[in-house]
Specification:
This protein is an alpha/beta fold and 265 residues long. Helices cover 30% and strands 18% of the residues. Helix 1 (15-31) packs parallel to helix 8 (233-248).
Length: 265
C-alpha cells in the first residue's frame, strides 16, 4: 500500500505543498520503501538487514514541515542554514542542526536517504551541496531533489526566496551525475497547472504583499508565505495534484513548474 500523505500541518492544506508531497512520496515509496513503524527519532525502527535505524537527512528542513512525511522512511534529522525556523522545527519534535548544505557537520556514509526539497536553488555552491550529500550517504543511499523549473519563469517569488537559479531536467541530471550520482528518475511536476502558473508569472511577475524571512525582521515569519488559494479552488487543485501523483508514478512528465529527481550513490 502506498505511503499515506499525512495532513497534519497547515502547510499540508495548501495545494502546492501537497502536490509536491504526493510526488515525493511516490518516488520514495518506489526507490526507498516505507520503513515499517518508522517514527521521527524512534530508535526501535531498524533496518531489518542489520538492526540499525534508517537515517534520513533533510537539508534545508526549515520549520520541519516535511519531517512527518519523511519519517515514513526512517529517523529524520533536519538541517538548515537559517536559524529562524529551527525553534519551530524543534517544537515539532524534529532533531535539528544549523549548518550550510555545502559543509555538513556529519561523518561519511551514515545516511540512507538525503533530501534537498526546494533547497539547492538557494545555495551558490550547488556542486558543493551535491558533493556533501554524496559524502554522507551510504553506498546505495538515495538522494531526493526538488527544484523550481525553467529560468524563463523567474519572478518576484524567486527574488524573495533568494534563489540563485532554476533548473531543467537535463541540467539537474547532468550536475548530479558530475557529482557521482546515478539518476534513477527525473521528471517535471506541477504539470497540469503549468499553463496557469506560467501565465501568472508572465502577466504578474511581482507579488510584493508576500512576507519573506529574507526581507522582514518579524521573527514570526520563518518561511516564505504561499499565496492563499480560496475554496473551492484549493480543493480542486488538491484533486488535480492527486491525479498528477498517480501519473508521475508511471511516466515522466514533459514540462511543469518544478523538477523532481531521485538519484543513487
Amino acid at each position: 500500500m502506498p505511503t499515506p500523505a499525512l495532513t497534519v500541518l497547515e502547510e499540508d492544506r495548501h495545494w502546492w505543498f501537497m502536490t509536491r508531497t504526493r510526488a515525493i512520496l511516490k518516488y520514495l515509496d518506489a526507490e526507498v520503501g516505507p520503513q515499517n513503524g518508522a517514527r521521527n527519532g524512534d530508535p526501535r525502527n531498524g533496518d531489518p538487514r542489520n538492526g540499525d535505524p534508517r537515517r534520513v537527512l533533510d537539508i534545508g528542513a526549515g520549520a520541519g514541515n516535511m519531517a512527518h512525511h519523511l519519517a515514513h522512511y526512517g529517523q529524520v534529522i533536519g538541517l538548515d542554514y537559517n536559524a529562524r525556523p529551527l525553534p519551530v522545527a524543534a517544537a515539532r519534535a524534529l532533531a535539528t542542526s544549523q549548518a550550510s548544505g555545502d559543509q555538513l557537520p556529519f561523518p561519511d556514509a551514515i545516511f540512507d536517504l538525503v533530501t534537498l526539497l526546494d533547497t539547492v536553488e538557494h545555495i551558490p555552491n550547488e556542486l558543493g551541496v551535491f558533493a556533501e550529500a554524496y559524502r554522507v550517504l551510504k553506498p546505495g543511499g538515495k538522494l531526493m531533489v526538488t527544484v523550481p523549473a525553467f529560468m524563463w519563469l523567474w519572478s518576484y517569488n524567486d527574488v524573495i526566496n533568494e534563489h540563485q537559479r532554476r533548473y531543467t531536467v537535463p541540467e539537474l541530471s547532468q550536475k548530479l551525475e558530475l557529482s557521482g550520482f546515478r539518476v534513477k528518475r527525473a521528471s517535471y511536476n506541477n504539470f497540469f497547472v503549468f499553463p496557469l502558473i506560467a501565465g501568472m508569472r508572465l502577466l504578474r511577475p511581482d507579488a510584493p504583499e508576500l512576507d519573506s524571512p529574507h526581507l522582514t525582521a518579524d521573527d514570526e515569519v520563518y518561511q516564505v508565505e504561499m499565496e492563499p488559494t480560496p475554496e473551492p479552488v484549493n480543493s480542486i487543485l488538491h484533486a488535480v495534484g492527486w491525479l498528477e501523483a498517480e501519473l508521475i508514478e508511471r511516466v515522466n512528465l514533459p514540462f511543469g513548474s518544478s523538477v523532481i529527481c531521485v538519484a543513487e550513490k
